[in-house]
Amino acid sequence: MSTTDFSQFPPIAFIGGGNMASAIIGGLIRQGVLASRIMVVEPYEPQRAVLLQQFGINALPAADGSLASAQVVVWAVKPQTFKDAAASVAAFTGHALHLSVAAGIRSSSIATWAANEHIVRAMPNTPALVGQGMTALFARQGVTPAQQALAEQIIGTTGQFIWVQQESQLDAVTALSGSGPAYVFYFLEAMQQAGVEMGLPAEQALQLAIGTFTGASQLAAQSSEPPAVLRERVTSKGGTTFAALESMRGSHMGAHFIAAMKAAEKRAVELGDEFGA
Ligand SMILES: NC(=O)C1=CN([C@@H]2O[C@H](COP(=O)(O)OP(=O)(O)OC[C@H]3O[C@@H](n4cnc5c(N)ncnc54)[C@H](O)[C@@H]3O)[C@@H](O)[C@H]2O)C=CC1
Ligand SMILES: O=C(O)[C@@H]1CCC=N1
């Protein structure tokens, strides 16, 4: 297969057709993958209607023999439902590359359920919906270089990616970039609320907050200097930023934030323990 000709992309099946599946399907279709090459198993009828309306894909209500043509199976179900979903799918997909986006569920569990060692785990995030995703990938031993390239092509349609070498690092990734968009939205909400309390219209306060996140992120991405130096450049001695940062330090905001992310990592480990094989 050509690395660029997405119209020749091999048949791909999604198990679960919710948020993350839609983000990846959207990326594939934007790059020219034919909707006719994309299968989706989605038991929830209203969500099947969304997939039809959004992508022109007739999702299956349950797994069937048509999945056997898939060269890649993307697992996009909740960790809690992975095992049950796998029981109805595995009979058809033994030979495929299995690409899981489920938080916590370890490749050893997937290998057991899918009777297959060809497993790549991905931890994407919802900015994938607009082609700005940040994903970490992990390949189980036994995944071929061609399969790794295939996983990169799929995830690459949704934004940037990195590979991690240890599977346990995916739990840290989940806490950082997987859940991370929620932290950003939380900060945006707080910045908007503060703006309103200080007298700005809500719409303008949100526009200012979003523009600030976008601009600061771009500056950090394009600068050769670390965030701490960029922060110091904003902070005039005795000025407004200094006052804000002193308030944040006084309430130990950084320590609270790190503790919150560690709670997310702990939950990822628990999900693997609770819902794994
Ligand atoms: N939403 C996020 O920000 C991220 C989610 N993830 C992971 O992606 C996975 C999916 O999450 P979302 O897309 O957010 O959830 P979602 O709830 O939007 O999608 C899951 C879909 O699976 C369907 N489903 C339930 N049982 C099924 C079965 N037996 N067979 C096939 N489909 C079934 C549901 O009807 C639903 O539409 C989760 O494992 C989550 O950990 C990973 C990174 C980010
Ligand atoms: O909250 C969750 O469990 C999923 C994984 C990362 C983002 N959403």
UniProtKB/TrEMBL annotation:
Residues 167-271 form the Pyrroline-5-carboxylate reductase dimerisation domain. The keyword Lyase does not apply. The chain crosses the membrane at residues 12-29. Gene3D superfamilies: NAD(P)-binding Rossmann-like Domain (3.40.50.720), ProC C-terminal domain-like (1.10.3730.10). This is Pyrroline-5-carboxylate reductase. Catalyzes the reduction of 1-pyrroline-5-carboxylate (PCA) to L-proline. Pathway: Amino-acid biosynthesis; L-proline biosynthesis; L-proline from L-glutamate 5-semialdehyde: step 1/1. It catalyses: L-proline + NAD(+) = (S)-1-pyrroline-5-carboxylate + NADH + 2 H(+); L-proline + NADP(+) = (S)-1-pyrroline-5-carboxylate + NADPH + 2 H(+). InterPro entries: 6-PGluconate_DH-like_C_sf, NAD(P)-bd_dom_sf, P5C_Rdtase_cat_N, P5CR_dimer, Pyrroline-COOH_reductase. Residues 12-102 form the Pyrroline-5-carboxylate reductase catalytic N-terminal domain.
